[in-house]
Amino acid sequence: xxxxxxxxxIRACLGVVLLFISCKNKEGDLVKVERxxxxxxESNEDFPNPERGxxxxxxxxxxxxxxxxxxxxxxxxxPQSIQNAKYKVSSTLVFRYYILDDVVNKAISxxxxxxIKKDFEASRAAGxxxxxxxxxxxxxxxxxxxxxxxxxxxxxxxxxxxxxxxxQLKPVLHDNADVIACVQLGFxxxxxxxxxxxxFGDASxxxxxxxxxTDNNWKDRIEVIKAMLDAxxxxxxxxxxxxxxxxxxxxxxNSALTSAAxxxxxxxxxxxxxxxxxxxxxxxxxxxxxxxxxxxxxxxSPRTSDGTVLNTLKDYFxxxxxxxxxxxxxxxxxxxxxxDCEPAGKIQAEFAALHYSFINAHYNTAVNNDxxxxxxxxNIKRNLGYRFVLQTALLPxxxxxxxxxxxxxxxxxxxxxxxxxKRPAKLMLRNSKTGEVKSFDLAADVRKWYSGDNKITESIKxxxxxPAGDYELLLSLPDAYASIxxxxxxxxRLANLEVWEAATGYNKLNHMLKVQ
Length: 516
Known about the structure:
It is built from ten helices and 23 strands.
């Protein structure tokens, strides 16, 4: 449906008056100005969008490196079957375990660093981004110990070695920020999950000391986080495994569970608190997600785990996660039916409350298969991360050169989260005769298009020497990096019918503008 709002200018450039712009043309003649209310149709299609969705899993060992294959990565963007899964996924994210198995006591080799660069090159060409995690071991060692299924020595590295390795990785990470979605902390403990560790405190039943972490354990972990914040490009976030780890980094080793979460005033500022996100590798696996929501204590306080601890840390996670990157994987189906589809379960409500942007397509397929059987998998595939639906737009039908073009976009974010990496929003004017495209940067911060309704009110100046003619209006949400900004695979697609232009990565506003 299209509605028109009409009036006549009284004098030049009065601005917005009763939902319309009033202006004279350059000859001083009275100009009839109309604002057109355009309504759009939502799409239910599951399609790939950057930096969100089900990720594909991969791993590589420094002792036996196999570089990522561009053709295989490109194939991930189309629906593909997953081993032992009842569902197919389209993916723009690839999780990559970099297992530093042969450098626990020495420097990373030059050939390893070269191969990482090749991984990034393949990702860039294929239109996907990586989630790297650097670890020393991703293998559980069963034996005669209290835990049984995993016993020391675990195989991670001392702090000095880790810090040297982070320093070696810094140039590679900075040079390839464009195809890094985020980086997971890694390094410490088996799987890089900061739990079973030979050098940073062992919080498991194997560790003694009341299963708690000491002040020095916390300080050593904080030092590694600080080094990673320096090594990872400043416009990229780092995911931590436990919410308390972020609290202890931000507020110190004696910080309370009630420590303040990130708020909008501090979000997306490039500060440490704004750059630390979360990955939960046992999402909805138990009441406290296998230790995700626990107080690990310190030298003067015991480790505690009860309902109060769980609720306090989860409330912190819910508030903090609105402004940072969140993802992970499921790990056990024993928490069924809570981790099933609604109404028996609450999986979609949890994804939304904790602002999840991505989840592992490969693990745990027993949990994920239940979503397929329960009928909510299609919703989850569509709604992980952001999903922008253009509902209506109030657009002028003409504009006078040298004056402002004012418009309003009403966009619903049907997804669980907003984008976590900065990207520009641009209004594109494409000449209907010549095809020439003029681009105008908008003031909107796409990261603040939170779940729910968003009203974007914008004004751009049309230069006085702008060529007159009829122009098609388009919205472009490209990547922030010039290296991939022109690649449509890295641009955000709106969830609307008859809007997306696959060849350009533009979203058509289905409206013509006359420039006089």
